[in-house]
Structures are given as structure tokens and as C-alpha cells.
Amino acid sequence: MSRIGRKPIPIPSGVDVEIKENSISVKGPLGTLEKPLPSGIIIKKSDSTITVERPNDDKYYKALHGTVRTIVNNMIEGVTKGFSKTLEIIGTGYRAQKQGDRLVINIGYSNPAIFEPDEVHFEVPDPTHVVVKGIDKERVGAVSANIRGCRPVNPYSGKGIRYAGEAVRRKLGKAGKVGAKK
Q1: What is the rounded (10 degree) CA torsion for 26, 27, 33, 36?
Q2: Which residues have a Cβ under 8 Å from the Cβ of 109 and sit 6 or more positions away?
Q3: Going from the N-terminus, what domains does the chain have, and what CATH number goes with each?
């Protein structure tokens, strides 16, 4: 049995979970999320917990058991607390600013990179930090990855966009011809 899949999911007060035949809907104080479920996985709701079960021990259902449980748990956590990712912008002249709901990032290209809020919202505490917030963990991660992909960190200079706390392996660069014979 999957250790993660066996754990029951507690339903906090103020959260309403509705299970249909092939989808689950979670409504909470921060919003509503709805996701389709793979066929065959059984989700049971009691008064204050949700359990995820699989019909048999096929490899397919074993792989989905823990995954579906984690997705449902993230939905419940998202509508109660929300998710956020912080990005750091490092480089001379690189900066971010918010224009209305949009995020505008100047990262050394002739035109700035502009991001529209797609089920997420942006916060810019200072010009070198961007916080992406939302209730859907998958969307927050995807938008953060798209922002980071505009200017990934250069391993030689260290400039670029990185996640807060991300360790970047630096390369030395050209060492020259040390000890070469003339």
C-alpha cells in the first residue's frame, strides 16, 4: 500500500468538498477549485475526512493512489491557505514592476517581458523580488517557471531569475594558458 495514499485528509471547518463520479470540487474561504479524477480511483468522504482508495494492486492504480491523494490535499490546502513562490531577479538594471494586475520585467532585452495574471496574482515587494500567489499549486508553479524561463541564471556571471533560496552552481570560466610552452 502507498504510505501517502493511505493517509486520511482532514477537512478543515469552512471547506466544502463535493465528489462527483469523475471530478472533485473544493470550496473554501479563498475560492473554488475543481479537478477531474482518473477513473477507478475511489474517493470516500466522511464527516471530517477524505480517504483515497484503489480498486486493486495493478501498477497503474498504485502509481495514481498517492498522486490523487496529494492533489486533493493540495486543493484543500490551496482554498484555505493558498500557495506562493518567490523569485529573485539578479543583474545590473534588471527589475520588476507591477502595472495594474500585470507584471512587467526588464531583464536586459530590448522589450520588457509582460505577464498577465492567469488564476494567480503578483506582488512586487521590491524591484528585485516577485511573489507569485494563488490557490492552485499547479498554476503557481507553472507561472513561476515561465517567469524564470525568460532569463535563467547564467552559471558564469550569476545573473538572471532564480527561485528564492535556489543554489546555483557557478563555473569558473576561461583559465587561460597556464604552463603552456612557447
Answers
A1: 30
A2: none
A3: 3-80 (3.90.930.12), 83-163 (3.90.930.12)
- Residue 47, C-beta contacts closer than 8 angstroms, at least 6 positions apart: none
**How do residues 34-43 score in pLDDT, each as one tens digit?**
999 998 899 9
Query: pLDDT for 61-97, tens place per residue?
Result: 998 999 999 999 999 999 999 999 999 999 999 999 9
Closest to 150 in 3D by CA, of 96, 105, 117, 103: 105
**Dist. CA 94–CA 6, nearest whole Å:** 47
List the one residue out of 16, 71, 6, 7 whose CA is nearest residue 38. Answer: 71
pTM recorded for the entire structure:
0.87
